[in-house]
Amino acid sequence: MTITDFCIVMVRELRALQRELQAYPDDETPWRLAPGITNSAGTLALHLTGNLRHFVGAVLGGSGYVRDRDAEFARRGVPRAELVAGIELAIAEVESAIRAHDDARLGAAYPVPVGGRQVTTSQFLVHLVAHLGYHLGQVDYHRRMTDPAAKPVGTLPLDALAEIVA
Questions:
Q1: Is the pLDDT confidence value at 146 over 70?
Q2: Domain covering 3-152: architecture
Q3: Are 49 and 13 in contact, with CB atoms under 8 Å apart?
């Protein structure tokens, strides 16, 4: 796997997150909590963008983004247009950070310890992609739980990988 491959998958997942948010019927539904669910889709969108803007944009890319993780989980009622705009910022920072490195970066230590451990950049990028996919699935499920008329949005189209590479 190349460093560009990580970028391709992250961007695909972030675009899917945008489609999920845009598929909600209004700006309020992404913030509803369903029984047994602790995080709304809005909260997950803020968390995912903050996470990637920090760990990829700032740490790998030097974007200067300063994360406020507590705010990611405390903010409420952010309009979908603002959430989608935040995803666009995350995409731009991911692409910029990844372009600044070559494949040799993957075997090197990630610039900061994670959870008190030193890991390779490759190991941490795998973690970030898995984390993004995990929460993207939660958003899809949340949307279908809170909107009885929800239709599929093609969350993970394989052809999107070819479109990004082309």
A1: yes
A2: Up-down Bundle (1.20)
A3: no
